[in-house]
Amino acid sequence: MTAATQADTAQRNWQGRNSLDVERVRADFPILAREVNGKPLTFLDSAASAQKPRQVIDTVRGVYETEYANIHRGVYFLSERATANFEAARGKVQRFLNAADVSEIVFTRGGTESINLVASSWGGRFVKEGDEIVLSIMEHHSNIVPWQLLAERTGAVIKVAPIADDGSFLLDEYEKLLSPRTKIVAVTHASNALGTITPVKEIIRLAHAQGAKVLLDGCQGAVHAPVDVQDLDVDFYVITGHKLYGPSGTGALYGKKDLLDAMPPYQGGGEMILRVSFDKTEYNVVPHKFEAGTPNIAGSIGLGAAIDYVSELGIDRIAAHEAEILAYAYERIAEIDNITLYGTAPEKASILSFQVEGVHPHDVGTVLDQEGVAVRAGHHCAQPVMDRFGITGTTRASFGAYNTHADVDRLVAALAKVRELFG
């Protein structure tokens, strides 16, 4: 698919939706006012970690300045206030994902810990020798390595669903991999390296028909589209705070309550217990059974503030705005010779992954940085998909709620500098 064709597709995907007041949004992000190397900051790396609005920054600072104490243990005012705010944030995640019950939301340090929790706890109990784990070739390393570790411990077999040349998920080929031995399917909702949005409802339906459970890595998906875990009927769904305009070191795991109840604790320590003796320990109920130790209290409350923020803007409006920016980026990138695009599936998030012919992605990224343009260069923690295309990496520009046409123009102008330097 050419850049022009992709631009037409992206254009159709956003037309007719409500627009976002991007200038008002940009005013909420203090870091966007700074300069880098004497140039206005053009931040195009939200797929790695989004910037934080003032509303989130103020919330986290306010916790530490006026309301901080440890939670669930104190009987004094500050502890009770911190506990209430922490649990209110859990309720915000529940509503954001439309989970049936707040007990189905486990706070974690992010997507990586959430996936490791499921692989270690659920997988450790229910996956046996000869069972099958199905992944896709697009997965981030954090949705590959935990399952490899599980397979090494248990003797399970990993199968990998392929993709088309444009990065589309091949549903028919995926279906062929499923069997009664399939215990779990773990796939991305949206690829961090290509932007491909996978057909998650069909992925789940086909897996369930074989009796398998499904984990969706929603670290990219939940940022770009509304998520309803009940409508999807997904068994586990993973989000991370730092891509959702929230604090780093925060995230959440959604799990169906009956599954969480059947899983053993992931870690031991305070908070995850009801009573400890040297004869026997009684574990706490879910979700607390999986939240050993003092959590990131201020960060989790900040995650709640981030969810408030994106909910106020409207995920649909954010997605429509990002699709429009992506369409414009495809129009502008088509003006540049010797650019190869990777990930041009019809359904995709606002990620532009490309190579400049004859120039290493790291060199492209370095030149762009001198122009104040921040992009990601490399394999994006997704080496198998790079191997699929026979490359070592790409330059990736990823767009968020705060990006504008001017950001795309500065990217294109900076790429012209790359051509000047490298010919």
Fold blueprint:
Layout: H1 3-14, H2 22-27, E1 35-36, E2 39-40, E3 42-43, H3 54-67, H4 77-97, E4 105-108, H5 111-126, E5 132-136, H6 145-154, E6 157-161, H7 171-177, E7 182-188, H8 200-209, E8 213-217, H9 221-224, H10 229-232, E9 236-240, E10 251-255, H11 257-262, E11 273-276, E12 281-283, H12 297-313, H13 315-333, E13 339-342, E14 351-356, H14 361-370, E15 373-374, E16 376-378, H15 383-389, E17 394-398, H16 405-422
Parallel strand pairs: 3-15, 5-6, 5-7, 7-8, 8-9
Antiparallel strand pairs: 1-2, 4-10, 9-10, 11-12, 13-14, 14-17, 16-17
Helix pairs in contact: 1-13, 3-12, 4-12, 5-6, 13-16, 14-16
Features:
four-stranded antiparallel sheet; 2 domains; 423 residues; single chain; globular; alpha/beta; seven-stranded mixed sheet; Aspartate Aminotransferase, domain 1; Aspartate Aminotransferase, domain 2; 16 helices
Please give a quick description of this structure.
The chain is an alpha/beta fold. It has helices at residues 3-14, 22-27, 54-67, 77-97, 111-126, 145-154, 171-177, 200-209, 221-224, 229-232, 257-262, 297-313, 315-333, 361-370, 383-389, 405-422, and strands at 35-36, 39-40, 42-43, 105-108, 132-136, 157-161, 182-188, 213-217, 236-240, 251-255, 273-276, 281-283, 339-342, 351-356, 373-374, 376-378, 394-398.
The CATH superfamily of the largest domain appears as Type I PLP-dependent aspartate aminotransferase-like (Major domain)
Q: For the record, what CATH class of the largest domain applies?
A: Alpha Beta
Summarize the amount of helix as a percent range: 40-55%
Give the total of beta strands: 17
Structural class determined from secondary elements: alpha/beta
Task: Categorize the overall geometry.
Answer: globular
CATH topology of the largest domain: Aspartate Aminotransferase, domain 2
| Main sheet strand line-up | 4-10-9-8-7-5-6
Task: Give the number of helices.
Answer: 16
CATH architecture of the largest domain: 3-Layer(aba) Sandwich
The low-confidence runs, each spanning 5 or more residues with pLDDT under 50, are 9-17
Strand content: 15-25%
**Count of discrete structural domains:** 2
Q: Could you report the average pLDDT, rounded to the nearest whole number?
A: 95
